[in-house]
Amino acid sequence: MIVHTFDGLQALTTPQPSSWGSSSNGTSLNLYGLNQEYAEIYRTQPNVRICVDFLARNIAQLTPQVFRRVSDTDRVRLVDHDLARWIGKPNPSTRRYRLFENLMGDMGVYFNANWVKVRYRRDDGRAAIGLVRIPADQLTAEGGLLKSHFAWTSNGRVKDFALSEIVYFDGYNPTNPLMGLSPLETLRNILAEEAAASSNRESYWRNASRQEGVIERAVGDPSGKWTKEQKNDWREQWQTRATGSAAGQVALLEPGWTFKASSFSAKDSEYTVGGKLRREVVAAAYHIPQPMVGILEHATFSNIKEQHKHLYQDCLGPWLEMLQQEIEGQLLVECEDQTDVYVEFNIDAKLAGTPEERAASLQMAVGRPWRTVNEARSLENLPRIDDDELDTVAPQQGGPSDATVHPERATPPTFQPPDDESDADEPDATAIAPVLHAARLRQQARLGKLPIAERAAAFFRDFDRWNRELAQDLTPIVGAEKAAHLAVTANGTTLTRLITLEETAA
Questions:
Q1: Which of 27, 295, 399, 463 is deepest in the core (most CB within 10 A)?
Q2: Does 391 share its domain with 481?
Q3: Does 375 reside within a domain?
Q4: Cα 34 from chain centroid?
C-alpha cells in the first residue's frame, strides 16, 4: 500500500529541539513573556510528561474490540469485522498500540488528535481504510462552530480535506475556544512557576550551589581605604573563585571582613514542597489519582488498590467512552456491516485483579470448579491428555456424576422390598406379565433404531420416563406404591442387560 502526501511525496524536515515564539494555530503558551510550543512544554516539563505518558500508555494497552449485540443478554465478538482489521493494522509502519499511544499523547498535550483515512483496495478487491496520524498542530478545522473541512499545513503547503476523510477527536477550531483547548492553557501559571523554578535550580547547581551574598568590611579596617585598582583586583579574584570549579574550597578573608548570605536556601524557598504541589495540580487537571504518578505520601496498600479501580472507572472511563463514540461515528459508518455493531475497550482485562482473585471470584459465581485438567494444562503450555475424564470436572469437586458422563457405567437401581409384611406378598405374576411384556416392546421399538453401543446410554437418559409409564400401567393391578417399586426393579434389570450386551458386542 502506497500513501501519498498531498499530490506526492514531499520533503521531510527534522523538528528543531526548541521552538520559541508566537504560534498562529493555538499550539503555544506564554510563560512569563515567552511563547513556548506545547510540544516543547511536554519535552521540558516532567510533570506534564508524566501525566500525559501515563494516560497514553494505559489506554494504548487496552484493546478495542468489535461486538454484535444479539440480545440484551448475549453478544458475539466480531474478530474478522472490517473495523477490527482497520484498527488492528492501521498502516504498514504503525501498530495498534502506537496508534492509540500517539492519539492520547496528542489529546493530552493539545486536546486535539486526528487520523487521516487512506483508502485502498485489498487483494480480494474489497474497499479498505488505513489510518495515519496527522500531528495535532498541523491540522485545523475550518468553518466555525459547524466544521466544513480541514486544512493541513505541512512544509509550507496547505491541503484541504473533507470531513469524511478525517477521524478527528475535538479538532482545533480557532473560532471556538472550547474546541481543542489544551489543558496546558489551564495550567499556565503552574507551568510558568515550574519553568522558573527549574531555571533557578539549574543556575543554583551551575554555580556550585553557592549562596548569594555580600562581604562586609568592619569600620576601621586595618587594610585602610582601597584604591580603585585594589577593589577591582579583589572583585576579580572573588568572582573567579565564585564562578569557577571551587566546590569545597574555603575563602580566606581579611581581618574584620564577614560574609553575609542574601539568598534563600532550597528549604527556605520550599522548592521541594512547591514541586510536589505542582505535580499534584497537573495530575488533578488530568484527573489522575495521585499515587499513580508517584505521589505516595499518604499511599497504603488498601487505598492504592481502590485508586486502581478509580483510575479505570472515573479517570480512563470517560476517555474510553469518547473514543468509542468517535470511532463508531466516524469509522464504523464506513463499514458494510453495521447492524447492531459496536466498539468496546477490553477494560475487564485490567480490572480482573490477580489470578488468585479472579479464580476465587469465578468459582464463587459458578459455585463449582470451572476448569478441567486439560484446560489447566493448556494454560501451562502442556499438551492435552487424551482422556475424556480429564475434559470434565470431577464429581467430588462439584462436577457432573460419572453416570451422567458415562451412563453405561451407572449402577442400576435395585428394588428394596418393604419392611411391612402385609405389603410383602408377591403380586399376581399372571396379571402383570402382559403389562411388563408390552412395556419391553415399546422400549425395544425405541432402542432398536440405535446402535448397540448407544442403547444403554439412551435408556438411562429416559430412565425416569420408563419408570413413570410402567408404574402407571401397573397401578390398577397392584396399587401405586407397589407399582413404583416394580417399575424400578424391572427397568433396572433391563438396563443391566443392555450394559452387558454392549460389553459383549465390544
A1: 27
A2: no
A3: yes
A4: 39
The stretches of 170-315 forming alpha helices (DSSP H) are 183-186, 188-206, 228-243, 271-285, 301-310
Same domain, 448 and 486: yes
Helices and strands of the chain, counted as H and E runs: 18, 13
Q: Are residues 138 and 157 in the same domain?
A: yes
Counting residues of the chain whose pLDDT is more than 90, the rounded percentage is 20
pLDDT classification of 219: cutoffs 50, 70, 90: low
Residue 254 inside a domain? The answer is no
Give the Cα separation of 279 and 265 in Å (integer).
21
Residue 141: which H helix or E strand, with range? strand 139-142
**CB hemisphere CA count around 450 (13 angstroms):** 15
Residues 396 and 295 in one domain: no
pLDDT value at position 143? 77
Strand order in the sheet with 74-77: 74-77, 64-71, 341-345
| Helix pair angle (429-447, 463-478), 10° resolution | 160
Model's pTM, two decimal places?
A: 0.58
Grid coordinates representing 433?
A: 406379565
Amino acid identity, residue 433?
A
Q: Are strands 74-77 and 127-134 parallel, antiparallel or unpaired?
A: unpaired
Same domain assignment for residues 455 and 384: no
Residue 236 lies in a domain: no
Length of the chain: 506
Q: Check: CB of residue 189 under 8 Å from CB of residue 227.
A: no
Half-sphere exposure of 245 (CA within 13 A, CB side): 0
Q: CA triplet 126, 128, 131: central angle to 5 degrees?
A: 170
Do 431 and 486 have their domain in common? yes
* Domain region containing 367: 355-400
Q: Are residues 59 and 322 in contact, defined by beta-carbon separation less than 8 angstroms?
A: no
* Residue 60 and residue 187 in one domain: yes
- 169-178 tens-digit pLDDT: 876 666 666 6
* Alpha-carbon gap, residue 128 to 83, rounded angstroms: 9
- SS3 of residue 100 by DSSP: helix
**Domain count across the chain:** 3
In the block, which residue shows the cell 506564554?
Answer: 30
Burial class (CB within 10 angstroms; exposed 0-12, middle 13-18, buried 19+) of 113: buried
**Dist CA 36 CA 490 (whole Å):** 94
Provide CB contacts within 8 A for 296, sequence distance 6+.
Answer: none
All 3 cell numbers of residue 296?
A: 505516595
- My answer on whether 333 and 368 are in the same domain is no
Strand partners, 215: 259
